[in-house]
Design a protein that fits this description.
The complex is a heterodimer of chains A (223) and B (242). With 223 residues, chain A is mainly alpha-helical. Chain A contains 9 helices and no strands.
């Protein structure tokens, strides 16, 4: 755990000093919202449509972070150093998933208000706790699967291509559950609590993928 | 010769006999469907193709575990061939399914059918298997990463079906369930025979592919030993295990 904390601190410090990933993610999110506004030609979104727009926007921004996640390790020999160190290799998974989770959380701190501002979905303030809960579970899924896909893609020749084409189908069940979980929160008569079924599906999906990732991550780091 | 070619002839004959028997049963023995008429016959091809391809994907994952546990390249070959064949079978499955949907529901594609949608997602995921292999040059690493992918994707198949099924109201006919389905006996016989036939076809083709690939590897190794390293040009990047 200490190793994981050290790597996580290194990643956050690196992000804080270079500001490489997060500004790009938030910018992409805002631009995507604007694109949706013009693509759909609607000023106000509600219900399932609003939920879909928000989820897809977050997903595309997540893809940026997923592509960048291991690039520093790959380019500056961090992998070799990590493999030489006498530490548990799963620590890398926890650290990177933690970093990705935090990136997503910060992204949402900006993207959700931007979404509220630009596309004014109804009842967002009322449903905010429910929305936070759904996004929390969704971020765990994005973080776990994203780290896993990124670790596969970073060693391939065309890593910017392999990441998204494997990542998007793998994230589809999480995307379905997230969008369906958020949809009822943004209708005009929203009760404010997300549907339990989709929370359960999301949690189950997170759990299964986390277990798979813990079991298989070692094989992705071998040199 | 290679061990993979063993039993191939027997398997091929069994496949030919079973598939012929299945076709005879489907066209001359099983009754016409009361609602759909002759079009319903495609069910005997479509459903076995879908079932066999999904089982094949999961099998690829099981072989992937075999590779990760042992590091033996023959497991990688099995995993590759299982997924390769499943991909071909599932494209057959989705095309026959689409034809059936057009004939019986009037649309080539229906988003309200969870089985169809989840099947498409699974195909989209497995379509990335070959590009993934292709973009890793080192054969050891290629095998390793492909095995990890096959395990994750194999576990993804049932989970994906669960999630997509929850998300839609289904109208897909449920001819098979744990109680044995609601087909009359003659239809059931034709269906199970063709399921067996398609499974055997899968096994034969997979075995054939493995034998062919193994023979190629073997031949190259022998030629290299006979005429020297330089005389045999390297294959270049390849998707298949080499």
């Amino acid at each position: 755990m200490r190793t994981a904390a050290a790597i996580l601190r290194k990643d956050l410090l690196l992000e804080l000093r270079t500001l490489e990933t997060l500004p790009a993610m938030t910018l992409l999110a805002v631009v995507t919202l604007v694109i949706f506004h013009f693509g759909l030609n609607l000023d106000v979104l509600s219900g399932q449509l609003a939920a879909g727009v928000l989820t897809v926007t977050l997903l595309f921004s997540a893809m940026l972070a997923i592509n960048r996640l291991f690039v520093a390790e790959r380019e500056q020999g961090g992998f070799d150093a990590f493999l030489l160190a006498p530490v548990d290799r799963t620590a890398m998974l926890f650290a990177k998933a933690g970093a990705l989770f935090l990136f997503m959380a910060v992204l949402e701190l900006i993207a959700v208000p931007a979404f509220a501002l630009l596309l004014s979905p109804p009842r967002l303030g009322h449903s905010l706790p429910g929305l936070v809960l759904v996004l929390f579970l969704a971020d765990i899924g994005f973080a776990v699967i994203g780290t896993f896909v990124s670790a596969i893609a970073v060693h391939t020749r065309a890593r910017d291509l392999i990441g998204p084409i494997i990542g998007l189908p793998l994230l589809l069940p999480a995307l379905i559950a997230t969008a369906r979980g958020i949809g009822p929160l943004l209708t005009r008569h929203a009760s404010g609590s997300p549907p339990g079924r989709w929370l359960a599906v999301l949690a189950l999906y997170d759990l299964v993928n986390a277990l798979l990732a813990i079991g298989l991550f070692d094989f992705l780091l071998e040199e | 010769m290679t061990i993979h070619a063993r039993n191939l002839r027997g398997l091929a004959i069994a496949t030919a006999v079973t598939v012929t028997a299945a076709l005879v049963l489907v066209f001359f023995y099983a009754p016409l469907d009361a609602n759909q008429g002759f079009v319903q016959k495609i069910f005997y091809i479509h459903v076995p193709l879908a079932i066999v391809s999904l089982v094949g994907y999961c099998l690829g994952g099981v072989y992937g575990i075999g590779y990760l546990r042992t590091g033996d390249r023959k497991w990688d070959m099995r995993s590759y061939c299982a997924i390769h064949m499943s991909l071909i079978f599932s494209i057959g499955g989705i095309i026959t399914g689409s034809i059936w949907a057009k004939a019986s529901w009037g649309h080539w594609w229906l988003w309200s059918v969870p089985t169809l949608v989840s099947y498409l997602i699974v195909i989209l995921l497995y379509c990335t298997y070959q590009p993934l292999r292709f973009s890793i040059e080192d054969p050891e690493r290629q095998a390793q990463y492909a095995a990890v992918f096959s395990v994750v994707a194999g576990a993804f198949v049932p989970m994906n079906f669960l999630v997509v099924r929850l998300s839609t109201q289904f109208i897909h006919p449920h001819v098979l369930n744990l109680q044995g389905g609601n087909m009359p006996g003659s239809m059931k016989l034709a269906f199970y025979t063709s399921l067996l036939g398609i499974s055997l076809l899968f096994a034969t083709l997979m075995k054939f592919e493995m034998a062919a690939k193994q023979t190629r590897i073997e031949t190259r190794r022998l030629r290299r030993a006979l005429v020297g390293e330089d005389a045999v040009r390297p294959l270049g990047r390849t998707v298949a295990p080499s």
